[in-house]
Structure to design on (88 residues):
């Protein structure tokens, strides 16, 4: 039986299968990107595909700590678009 990779949401600490979460990646050029494929190289962080986790992420600044840099508002907007468009 093939093992399904699991990851932990950086906001709520819930463990879920990798494809149930959204990946945010910081690449070698220090760019922060939303990784819809889950395969881009770089340091990754995962969040649940829920507006609640996204709002908590923005409020607490958890990504700033995780990636050790200031996260641009555009990343949060991109995450919101992905969550809203995929929830339907």
């Amino acid at each position: 039986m093939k093992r399904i990779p699991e990851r932990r949401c950086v906001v709520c600490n819930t463990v879920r299968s990798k494809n149930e979460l959204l990946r945010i990646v910081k690449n070698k050029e220090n760019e922060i990107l939303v990784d819809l494929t889950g395969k881009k190289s770089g340091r990754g962080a995962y969040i649940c595909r829920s507006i609640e986790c996204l709002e908590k992420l923005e409020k607490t600044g958890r990504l700033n700590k995780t990636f050790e840099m200031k996260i641009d508002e555009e990343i949060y907007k991109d995450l919101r678009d992905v969550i809203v468009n995929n929830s339907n």
